[in-house]
Amino acid sequence: PKAAPTDVRIRVLNSTAIALTWTRVHLDTIQGQLKEYRAYFWRDSSLLKNLWVSKKRQFVSFPGDRNRGTVSRLFPYSNYKLEMVVTNGRGDGPRSEVKEFPTPEGVPSSPRYLRIRQPNLEIINLEWDHPEHPNGIITGYTLRYQPFNGTRTGQAVVEHLSPNQTRFTLQRSDPISRYRFMLRARTQVGEGTALVEESPALLDE
Length: 205
Fold this sequence. Notes:
With 205 residues, the protein is mainly β. The protein folds into two domains: 6-103, Immunoglobulins (Immunoglobulin-like); 112-198, Sandwich (Immunoglobulin-like), CATH 2.60.40.10. It has strands at residues 6-14, 17-23, 36-46, 58-63, 68-71, 78-88, 91-92, 99-102, 114-117, 123-128, 140-149, 152-153, 157-161, 167-171, 178-187, 190-191, 195-198. The strands form four sheets. Strands 11, 12, 13, 15, 16 and 17 form a six-stranded antiparallel beta sheet that branches. It is elongated, with a radius of gyration of 25 Å. Residues 91-110 are annotated as: Disordered. InterPro entries: FN3_dom, FN3_sf, Ig-like_fold, RTP_Phos/Ushers.
C-alpha cells in the first residue's frame, strides 16, 4: 500500500482499553487486495517514577475495510504510543503519525508475598511486599483477618494501613486458634486482588 490511515483518534474507555477510529485509505492506493488495518502500539513509560517497562511493540489487527476498533489488555497508569498501517498480501503500507495517550489508574495486583511469623503464643508478625503492578498510586492496604478453629470461625477484623506500611503485629486474643489473613493493596480506583495466607498451627511443646 502507498498510503497510511489518517485522522487516527483515540478515546480511552477504561484503564486497560481504548477505542480507535481512523479515516480509511483510498482503495486505489492499496495496490492489491486490502487485508486489514493494523494498530502497532507500545508502552512508552509508566506514570509511576522509577518503574521499568518493556517497550516491546505489539499489534492488533482489524480485518477488512473498516474504520474503527478497540485495543485492550493495556497496562493502567502508563504512557502509550500508537501508529496505524493498512496491509495487503505483500505486507504493511506506510505508518500513520504516532499518537500518544495515557491510560488512567486501575486497581493493583496483589502484594508480592505475605509472610507470617509466630515468635510466641501472644503475637503474630506479618510482613509483605508491594504489588508487582501497582497500576496507579497505592493509597494503602486493607488487611482482614479472622481466627478459626476447625469449622468454627471468629469475628473478622479489618485494618486500613498506610501505603508505605509493610509490617503488622497482631496481639492474639486466642492462643489456640489459627488465623486467616487477606491482604489487598488499593489505589483511588479501588482494591486489587487479595493475597490469602493462614497462620501455621502451633505445635504443643
